[in-house]
Amino acid sequence: MPAFGSFALLVALALSAYTLMAGALALWQLANGRRGRVSPEGLAETARRAGIGSFLAVTGAAFALVYSAFANDFSVSYILHHSNRALPWPYKFAALWSGQEGSLLLWAWLLTGYGFVLRLRHKVDVTLTAYASTILAGVQVFFLLLLNFAAPPFSLVQGDVPADGFGLNPLLQYPEMVIHPPMLYLGYVGFSVPFAFALGALMMRYPGEKWIHITRRWTMVTWLFLTCGIFLGAHWAYSVLGWGGYWGWDPVENASLMPWLAGTAFLHSVMMQEKRGMMKNWNVWLIFSTFMLCILGTDLTRSGLVSSVHAFAQSSIGTWFTAFLVIIAAVCLFTFVLQRSHLKSEHKLESLVSRESSFLFNNLVLLAACFTILWGTLFPVISEYVQGNTVTVGAPFYDRVELPIGLFLLLLTGIGPILAWRSASFRSIRRNLVLPAAATFVTAIVLMAVGVRPWRDQSVLYSLAAFSLAAGVTTAIAAEFLRGANVIRRHTGRSLAASMVQLTRRNTRRYGGYIVHFGVAVIMIGIAGGAFKQSREQEMRDGQSMQLGPYTLVCRSFTQDTNPNYDTEFALLDVYRDGRKIAQLAPEKRFYAASQQTSTIVANRSTLEWDLYAVYAGKNPDSGLPVIKVFLNPLMAWIWIGVAIVAFGTLVALVPNLSASLAGRAAGGASGSAAVRDRSAETAALTESIHAVPVARSGD
Amino acid sequence: MTGRGVARRALRSLLLCLPLAAALGASDTAARFDRDSHQIMCECGCNELLGECNHMDCPDSPVMRAELSASLARGDSDDAILHQFQGQYGPAVLAAPRFTPFNHLAWIVPPLVLMLGIGATLLIVRKWRMVAVPMPPAPNIPDFSSARDRVRRETQL
User: Fold this and answer.
1) Chain-chain contact of B103 with A248 (C-beta, under 8 angstroms)
2) Which of B24, B41, B151 sits opposite A392 (nearest CB)?
3) pTM above threshold 0.90
4) Do A163 and A204 fall into the same domain?
5) CATH number for region B27-97
């Protein structure tokens, strides 16, 4: 199998290189009206097929690695270091992305997979897809060069092959680690597609905004994957690391957040290009930057330039990434300089008080947040260069600098949707802002009345602001839904709930976006709850109790268990509230035999109010007594609920509009019934009546 | 009272409140321990803040916590404590850059960039608005005005 895997990677490299070169030659011939022995169209077709073949070859290599893990083939160095015989099968599968070489193979597989779909769907626009396919092949070549020469996953062990492997890092032996990395990588790698389309469209001076329509779903799906990947990682950290938090501002975490912020900015500003033909330069650079940030993040964390607690942080492949980054930046800059005349805006901004300007500010704030993270991540390196010593840039820095930026963003989330395109009159703004502003102030006053004291602590001040702004944003979104649903209700006589569903189906993108904004507000409420966190640590004998908030924890017993993979010690804690037993928690400490490492498994009782989070910290070496640390984390569940709402909203936004699909069916002619046609006309008229107003420039 | 007078009085009240708020926050030793232990990194290599290092067999955090408690008991100020830790363990022990002019750059640059960005955006918007934008003519529909009025009425906008 290792030989097959290595051969498959070589074939994949050859096919990708052919896709790149033949594709580039065909496009050059087409652009310059040249013809060789083979027509450019024929050459481009062979390139497309080779690209499809590269996916099959990389799939073969990935299969070979997973097969080696399942077959306990410890002659493969990667399997020896990331698996063992007693490892449960889901983690053997996860071994594919548990180390440097495997994760690069996963990256290459996903990249060629995206390319496979793109090349199969080439009839959407044959020429533009050919450009995108060629650019994507360039990226494929880089990763396959790495896999073949710098970080080969099928290297064989020298000398005697051990009977068992060294095991998987215990921190990675948790269910979420089976899905978190693929999700994250689907996000990282997915941004290659809109990047390739944007660069291709610029190279060929593609007329109009069709490339944006083609890539819209790619970008949103990618963004959704990245969002889910980031939060799954946060939930894993919360459940496994046992420090009561979920985000530590580690460089690897920062590396995932930077492209997410830039991608979010792109998703917003691209709407200005679609609707108004504006911000073309900006959008092209935003998607270029998003892709480059994906590469830069990987470069920073794998080159050893910045230290990280994460696995596979340091290696020699950083130089490869740096070189690749320079090449990408050079190609983007060169293409931009050559073709920038093609990116002239069709409209100018007419008013500072408009949807367009809110998008501008939204972009500015998102990019400021992104820059801050980049700056904080790089500052230790800069400090070492300038001062001769390294410094730590940790949570206190980011909490102080990023939180105000996040609150400003939350404010914009509430204001943006109520502004009209082109220009909004102060009368309409006042009318639309009254309720959200009232909700914001009432929430702040009520919270202060019930005991939230913002002047006592900066974190409490930020929390109060977050709660209040989230209330305002939620009110603004609810008002938007109600206003539109009322119009439908009056026209159709349906219930309010049915009208809301109908409204959403008529403009899924807009109302899906509002749902995403609501999800963000819910996440911010969850994050703000962190200001009121409580914790207590105590040595506990059998029968001894601990009080935290309204809960009493009584230690019932300490016990041990063993299985072929690990030995475990755990505490059984009965949880009482108001004298009534409500739950039993069993925090664990595991010792993995293969890797000779320990890991914590947290016990958590999660409610909407708070999480009761218990950690078995081990035994006090002096007294021999077990130590239990318990956290009371308010509103933590709201973060995960908010993420689910964000995911739901994104899925809604991906659904085609009802009017478009009905119109499409009605246009089917003979097959479309008169009723459908009537419905389509009615839908179109209603949609127009609902959405015409915010676009109108008026002194209404 | 003039608007300027009200603003001045509000500012003065705010300035008077600040030391009071600081005093309220500083009075509690447990709160100070919690706050300071979240400004210092544990030295065991776990990359955790001292206040959050949860390794039972950690060789460093118990010692560092004891030093912090002793400093607080002596009545040292927060800055003095952080200086002391920096002197003992090196600059990387502080969880955020402090004390040197270069380290202050870490804090200044992000808000500065944001401010410059806002300024640049406002300038761009102003420049764009100075360019006359031709308005598209209203669609030539006979009952456009009545339709628009109906839409506004129905959507209450």
Assistant:
1) no
2) B41
3) no
4) no
5) 1.10.8.640
